[in-house]
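Materials and Methods. Structural model of PB1 domain-containing protein. The 234-residue sequence of PB1 domain-containing protein from Mikania micrantha was retrieved and submitted for structure prediction as follows.
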Amino acid sequence: MDSKVIENIMKRFHFNGSGSLLYWQRIQVGNKWCLTLEGQPFLPTADRKELKQYRNRCLKHSNYWVGQNTKVDQEWLAGLAAQEGIAYQRTSRDHDQFWGQLVVPVYIDKGKKLAGVIELAMYHPGEDYAADYLQLSNLLEGENLATKALIVKVTYENDTIKFPLLSIGIEYLWENVTMRFFKRSVNQQAFLIKYVNRSGNWTMISSDDDLQACIADLNNSFQIRMFIEYSPYT
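The predicted structure was written out as tokens:
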């Protein structure tokens, strides 16, 4: 893929603060592949040495192997996005997170082949990068490219909401559910989040481990269907 396409996307991206966009290009080597920043587009919002230093630190991950039967360092968020094929974020809610990060896989051939990963690195971490994900998704679509995220569809009574699950944690899930349905904080003890597992059984999600089990049960799907049940006596 022509790097100028990624450059055009970066130039049209609207930053909400001081940060940079980096592009990790996928390089195929035989039956294996890796990601590299070397010679790839890089767009900082300003001439801050910290933004360039961050990119230089990331360069040490260039040419690390990614893919099937490969264990990716969980701290390398771009590698994790490439390995799992979906977008991830790290925010001010994450422990000891000094930078805000959003990593978005880039697909060609109508979403069939991974071309690389766009990383948004923010000098001050924000609370959520869902709006930035949607902005990048739209910019990619405008260039006949695509991205993927884990999409959650939640139904409560007669209403259904849909949003990207960029942080894999029950707190982030609950925050999105309560604020989108109720526009305020609610007593979480009065509500249950459930989904139907692969065996057809209703299963409750009440912890990070439950959510991880739900994701593992997706069977290569990028969409989770959940339901909210009001249970005041729980």
